[in-house]
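In response to reviewer comment 3 from the previous cycle, which asked for concrete evidence that the modeling workflow produces usable outputs, we include below a single protein chain processed end to end. The sequence was submitted unchanged, and the resulting structure tokens are shown without manual editing.
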Amino acid sequence: MRITVDIEESTLTELLELTGKRKMSPAVAEAVEGYVRRLKVSRFGKQILSGAYDSESSDGIHAGASSESGGRK
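The workflow returned the following structure tokens.
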């Protein structure tokens, strides 16, 4: 999908250097994809820490088990 965005030239120059890309479009696409991936990982991590995934895994370790029990029930 094509879109038009205004980005400072200095930011684009830095992005090209950081990604090692020669063209702006692939560099911007990589940056956006990486940002979205980090947001998803961060949100999933927050859900785990809040206890949203407090179920027993296949190896018998409980995600919400206390460290005193060694993670096993």
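The chain has two helices and no strands. We consider this sufficient to address the reviewer's concern, and the full set will be provided in the supplementary archive.
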